[in-house]
Amino acid sequence: MPDKINRRILFSRLMVGEPRVEDFKLIEEPRPEPGEGELLLRNLYISIDPGSRARLSGRASYVPAKPLGEVMDAQSVSEVVLSRHPDFRVGELVAGYHGWQDYAISDGRRLSWIDSRQRPISTAIGVFGLPGLSAYIGIRKLLKVTAGETVLISSAAGAVGSIAGQIAKIDGAQVVGIAGGEKKCDFCQEVYGFDQMIDYKSEGSISEALKRACLKGAHVYFDNVGGELLNAAIANMRRFGRILICGQVAEYNLEPGQGIGLRDVSAFISNRLDMRGFVVLDHSEFFEEARRTMADWIKEKKLMVREHIVEGLENAPRAFCGLFRGENIGRSLVHLADPKE
Amino acid sequence: MPDKINRRILFSRLMVGEPRVEDFKLIEEPRPEPGEGELLLRNLYISIDPGSRARLSGRASYVPAKPLGEVMDAQSVSEVVLSRHPDFRVGELVAGYHGWQDYAISDGRRLSWIDSRQRPISTAIGVFGLPGLSAYIGIRKLLKVTAGETVLISSAAGAVGSIAGQIAKIDGAQVVGIAGGEKKCDFCQEVYGFDQMIDYKSEGSISEALKRACLKGAHVYFDNVGGELLNAAIANMRRFGRILICGQVAEYNLEPGQGIGLRDVSAFISNRLDMRGFVVLDHSEFFEEARRTMADWIKEKKLMVREHIVEGLENAPRAFCGLFRGENIGRSLVHLADPKE
User: Fold this and answer.
1) Which of A164, A267, A271, B295 has the highest local Cβ count within 10 Å?
2) How many angstroms away from the CA of A103 is the closest CA of chain B?
3) Considering only CA atoms, which of A71, A76, A94, A84 is closest in space to residue A34?
């Protein structure tokens, strides 16, 4: 039987600028009981998502504002520990959206079974979850990267960028990654095989660095960051260059009007650029193909998956704050417990 | 025989901010003589193009900087007055790029014969020239506007916007136009049949005006202006909205760094926007279809063409400066002479 206590981490203070651990509060509550048609989940892994920041300023942004006092949102890998739902049995492993807490009640909706390809089980919310799906669908279905193209990727060591860059390599592209720090840059070249890396922390001018790295300009920019990197990329695209806006992590901590936006719209005419914003949930028709294909690549060691796993629910706030200081390589997760069997 | 004198208007001073008539100089030179394989053209109409401004600051922008002392660029409708070229005969009418001058020498390249559909002949560089082609190809081939969509168009009384809006109407869209001044707005509703007009000169907040005009947001924004209007449009697009950047007239007079750019990139994620820069010359495969279709529409009175014609080469600088004060309704042209027959 599971513990009687449910630890939960609440969003407890509106954020201004960089997130702080004091913006969260850990509380203990009695473990909830599933009603008829419900099940009790024990979270094994929860995700630490930079995009969550956009909801934590008390303002609607590209997502609605999150009310204070709610449990933090996260993707989760969970084990069914009690079930009063006909479709789920105790011991089954499921992926869903069950927040920063030990236990959660589900009515079975927005839950998917973790299948045997998804090993370690944490990959269900990493390469086989939203980050990996964003990478696959972004590169293959929206950007339609082809062999010989130069593909620029920001946050190249991150959960999405690291997968996106490897898929672009598999599809024959030249990959130029942008990441912060020598360690990440070396990792991306050595482990992911990216052709060139730009350490934005050591470059005076990102635009000049991009110019050197992409001599004829980039065909594609897969943007996870926004801000200065987006502007530098726009200044270094080839004619008919395609830009996918997947994330804007440089912008999430800013107050309204603080963002630098996009300075040079005339480049869109001169280079016939196309820029598109992207949310992977719009493209669920490709999920099965993406998971199947990536599972094969992982088996063949064409696709390397790196996770940044922090131990213990109580450390989730610190892991979240660390994201914005670039502390993670790969998908950032918190490990809470192991499955029973 | 033609005159012996060729009046030419040179670009004679680098522009800062709004163009002034003193930035140009009219000179007189002997009429040039065509060499073997060349022909002498007499310009009948020349175009006044806002986009030319981008070349006149001494800086490369989306086009290379234009050197001081050169004759101003323009599209032209011309008559062949002397020919030493096997393909052209005296009296033929051609459209080309022969600048602000009475006469020009051509080697026959980048010239096209004006056919009998193109009447009055000035339409060869208006609705049948780059502005009309931009409108047709932008609306039908790139934006692929469909019936029932809300299409927002800036500079809706201008050479491109007025045609683009009418084509969107023909294709069943609701057209919301933006123009400066009551006169233009009334004209667009009465003559072009646009559903709603926003007079940006009388509105405190363009974004609020757009919100009222497009209650559920716009599906499409055909941008000829940039600047504040582009930002207001981005704030009022529907999910999966498409933006075509065709011109940026609000930006042409600005020094580097003065432009407001595009402030809210996160809207691209929240509303899955797509923004694309566009130069019609990339799409010449559609020119014949566009000309044929628009000629039919004009005959059937589905498409109304309005030209703003100024008399006399010497008035071209004033007409050019007037563009930036919004003095024209429809294509701005200068009439120099009539054909002989």
Assistant:
1) A164
2) 31
3) A84
